[in-house]
Design a protein that fits this description.
The structure holds two protein chains of two kinds.
Chain A (H helix, E strand, L loop, with lengths): L2 H4 L3 H13 L1 E3 H8 L3 H13 L3 E6 L2 E6 L4 H19 L3
Antiparallel strand pairs in A: 1-3, 2-3
Chain B lengths: L26 H10 L2 H4 L7 E6 L5 H18 L4 E7 L7 H12 L10 H14 L3 E7 L1 H17 L12 E7 L10 H7 L2 E5 L4 H15 L7 H13 L4 H17 L7 H11 L5 H5 L3 H17 L3 E3 H14 L7 H14 L3 E5 L7 E5 L5 H21 L1
Parallel strand pairs in B: 1-4, 1-5, 2-3, 3-4
Antiparallel strand pairs in B: 6-8, 7-8
Classes of the chains: A alpha+beta, B alpha/beta.
């Protein structure tokens, strides 16, 4: 998937943002925090996972997602979000 | 500028959650616990262990387990063994196995979901987490009684026989169960009981000497040098002893007494600070109990209260009490009663819990009765007695 396509969804960006903030989360928790339904959350999580940005661990029926620790794409996303956050803080947003 | 100096050096050392490096009078039990878990530092995958620690409140059960846990994790780390020690209080989890395991799972994944699975599934998940990290866990179930009460045999059987369903795989989970007495496990079925009761460490109640040395250790850690005189130490130990050798109570009392000393800008923690502290923890003598005392019992107690108020001593002898009782008799125009009668009054005050008595054999001549005033601040007691005696006088004058 092209970069513009990966970041074309506002919900995907928000999912990445919440995973970065919290560290690791299960699907229901992500959906609840973002106020969206389970099905669309899991669909976007699967897209991000296919791109190698995030990965999951399965515990019985529970899936816990986090950033892929060794993925260059995940590192780039992390750096992008951190830079954005710092800028926002200096501007007092 | 107002001067503020505290009797404390580091009051956190008196916090209920602080675990000291040295556990006085529990060295043998700590060694035994280490022996039971020796395998965890040699070949942890080959076996798991179950140990029960029993003992009354304040006998050091939790501190023993936590000291052991901290030490063994450190030693395992040095040997590159991934060993986790997790301490969960079952009562805080309302005796629910699910909540206990949920708390354990959250040590691996802090945002692990709180719903959507059973305790049985969660136990499987926990083992999976340990397998994935090639880690081993010693799980301490503190206040195990409440887990037994709520969950009964089946859940505890599942916890203890975890390995039977995974033959040939590394053993991951060992248990330490902390409870007051083995009575709680009597309600479990025989097979569950037999898996639990193989290794039992019973902690006997501390003696007064042991309490004194435990408190002295904490004083060195938490308070400034010379801030706690011997008299105060003796009273603290005496009160902790009267609470069934409860060291935790004694330590909490020491902290509270220190706070009273600070509030009054004193340089030392006096026995009176301890009495004030204890009256803030334990409900002190009820007014109607004092009113029910006979006229001479009130006079004797008034004398004792005055002695403590003036002397800052932890204990006084019956001879000293007798002398000041005679002064009180003169004040209230009463003829003093005999020594034997006073001894009887003292027994009745002691059975009410107003004073505590102890027979000392270290007096210069023979045996002497020592009197402690453990619960009520001397000045407060004195004031109440004067009020009651004066009321009684008015009443008798009126007749």
């Amino acid at each position: 998937m092209d970069i513009e396509e990966v970041f074309s969804s506002k919900l995907r960006v928000r999912i990445l943002k919440v995973i970065l903030q919290v560290g690791e989360l299960n699907v229901s928790d992500i959906a609840r925090r973002l106020g969206v339904n389970y099905t669309s959350t899991i669909r976007h999580l699967e897209i991000l996972e296919r791109e190698g940005i995030i990965q999951h661990k399965q515990f019985g029926r529970i899936r816990i997602y986090r950033l892929s620790p060794n993925s260059p794409k995940a590192k780039a996303v992390q750096s992008l979000f951190e830079t954005w956050q710092k800028e926002a803080e200096t501007k007092g947003e | 500028m107002p001067r503020y100096s505290s009797v404390f050096r580091d009051e956190m050392k008196l916090d209920i959650n602080y675990v000291p490096h040295r556990l006085p009078h529990r060295e043998a039990e700590l060694r035994l616990l280490n022996e039971f878990f020796d395998f965890a530092l040699q070949s942890p995958e080959r076996m798991s262990q179950r140990v029960m620690i029993t003992g009354d409140v304040g006998t050091g059960k939790t501190a023993l387990a936590q000291r052991f846990g901290g030490d063994i994790m450190l030693n395992a780390g040095k040997r590159r063994i991934s060993l986790r020690y997790t301490h969960v209080n079952c009562r805080e989890c309302r005796g629910s196995l699910f909540l206990v395991l949920q708390r354990v799972a959250s040590t691996f994944h802090p945002n692990f979901p709180k719903r959507g699975y059973s305790a049985e599934e969660l136990l499987g998940i926990l083992v999976q987490m340990l397998d994935e990290e090639n880690a081993y866990m010693i799980l301490t179930l503190d206040e195990f009684d409440s887990l037994v009460e709520k969950e009964g045999s089946e859940a505890i059987y599942g916890l203890t026989r975890l390995q039977e369903a995974r033959q040939g795989k590394p053993q991951r989970l060992s248990l330490i169960c902390i409870l007051r007495s083995l009575k709680a496990v009597e309600r479990l079925d025989p097979s569950t009981r037999s898996t639990l009761q193989s290794n039992i460490i019973n902690l006997p109640n501390y003696t007064k000497q042991q309490l004194t040395s435990i408190l002295s250790d904490r004083v060195v850690l938490a308070l400034k040098p010379s801030a706690v005189p011997e008299e105060t130490m003796s009273l603290l130990a005496e009160i902790a002893m009267s609470e069934n050798g409860n060291a935790r109570f004694g330590i909490e009392l020491l902290w509270r007494a220190g706070k009273y000393a600070d509030a009054e800008d004193l340089q030392v923690v006096t026995p009176e600070c301890v009495r004030k502290a204890v009256s803030s923890i334990v409900p002190s003598l009820r007014r109607n109990e004092l009113a029910s005392l006979s006229f001479h019992e009130k006079l004797l107690l008034l004398g004792i209260a005055r002695l403590f108020k003036e002397s800052q001593k932890a204990c006084v002898s019956l001879v000293e009490a007798e002398q000041i009782y005679e002064i009180a008799c003169e004040e209230y125009a009463a003829k003093p009663n005999s020594h034997t009668q006073l001894w009887k009054y003292l027994q009745s005050l002691s059975s009410l819990g107003v004073v505590k008595t102890e027979v000392s054999s270290v007096a210069p001549r023979g045996r002497s009765t020592l009197i402690y005033l453990p619960r009520t601040p001397a000045h407060e007691l004195g004031e109440q007695l004067v009020e009651l005696l004066e009321k009684g006088e008015t009443a008798s004058n009126g007749h």
